Amino acid sequence: MKFNPVEVINPKLYKDIFPYAEIPKIKFNNIQLPMDVSENIWITDTTFRDGQQSMTNMNSEQMVRLYEYLHLLDNGSGIIKQTEFFLYSQKDRNAVEACMDKGYEFPQITSWIRANKEDFKLVKEMGIKETGILMSCSDYHIFNKLNKTRQEAMKMYLDIAYGALENGIVPRCHFEDITRADFYGFVVPLAKNLMDLMNESKINVKIRACDTLGLGVSHAGVELPRSVPAIIHGLKYYAGVPSSSIEWHGHNDYYGAVTNSTATWLYGGASVNTTLFGIGERVGNTPLEAMIIEYAQIKGNIKNINLEVIKEIEEYFEKELRYDIPPKTPFVGKEFNVTKAGIHADGLLKDEEIYNSFDTGKVLGKPPLVAINSYSGISSIAYWINSYFSLKSKEKIQKSDERLITVKNKIDEEYEKGRTSNISTEEMEAMCNMYVLNNKYAYNNKAI
Length: 448
Ligand SMILES: CC(C)C(=O)C(=O)O
Prior knowledge:
By secondary structure, the protein is α/β, with parallel strands linked by helices. It has 2 domains: 42-319, TIM Barrel, CATH 3.20.20.70; 338-445, no CATH class. The protein contains 17 helices and 10 strands. An 8-stranded parallel β-barrel has the order 1-2-3-4-5-6-7-8, surrounded by 6 helices. A two-stranded parallel sheet has the order 9-10. Strand 6 (206-210), helix 8 and strand 7 form a beta-alpha-beta unit. The longest helix is centred in the middle third of the chain and has 19 residues, at 183-201. It binds 3-methyl-2-oxobutanoic acid. The site of 3-methyl-2-oxobutanoic acid has 8 residues, from strand 5.
């Protein structure tokens, strides 16, 4: 071991930042670091590991179907580069084998294992080229969970990495709880030792910076250990880790999962780890779909990612996995572009661009809608029908159409009875099918 950690008698727990009895603090130092976006940036997926742990377990068929969906969404772009699987149970291994049999280039299949010789054998036998291994970095973990000194923990982690390399496997070293870790006293020496192993073995070694409790902060001028720019910049410049080996794994406890992942890209890490719809431990991980939108904004395009597939994945989650996506979730919730305020609805009717920031109909297959309630007039109802059923030119329902009066009367009756809530999408769909469209454009064929 060439680079030793700074040994401490007592764990360094940053109590000035994390007093436990109070909300954590952000300390500012006003140091501005240079942005440094890599030419090539990408997304990895942990829906089957961190994601799946937070919901009802998926069976092998469901995992394989979702893997196919990820492949269809990626659509050969290579932006959704990898996805990782547990290998613990026969079910997981069956899923991995079936996914590998598909022979897709993207997402590449990687694993997550306990750090023991048997598991390395398994990875190798299954023909998997990369595996994740836990390397907890903060003294909360080293002292209080592992009951080790920093030196002992570092030695153990390097042995594990060495074991992977001996088997010809790329170790992806999960630096758990990096946002509460002593960066220069432990993280940098560990990363430097790992880079030595990479250079000696000529096998790639990756570092995944895990913001285990979602404490990372993306603003400029923040002190370590919470600063995402300082962590990413520091891994690159103080530990010599190449961009392509730096990845961020975020949790959304402080609503920072997306901005922290974006900061990783901006300050020189190539990869951000995500889950579909942000499912994951506690409040969840970084949502994959959000990072596609971030990618589009940073790079100006999404190569040939097929965003319309997201709609199918949403349906699959809701119908097959019984997971309800909260309706107000950006880009994927049923109401993400539904305008409710009367004055906004009025603007939308005049010109869609006034209250929709991009053509969600064209890009995501989800045109903006207006909510229907006691204030909705005939023109809102006409707009709702035309958008929801994607009616074009001649098919469009005009506000002079008499059939709309029946719908309007039905809605008014509801509010006369004392209703206060909006008319739901399902109710509108059923009413329109019955009184206006005669089921011609029905999506779900629901009766009222
Ligand atoms: C268990 C570790 C690797 C993790 O997923 C996290 O830190 O969130």
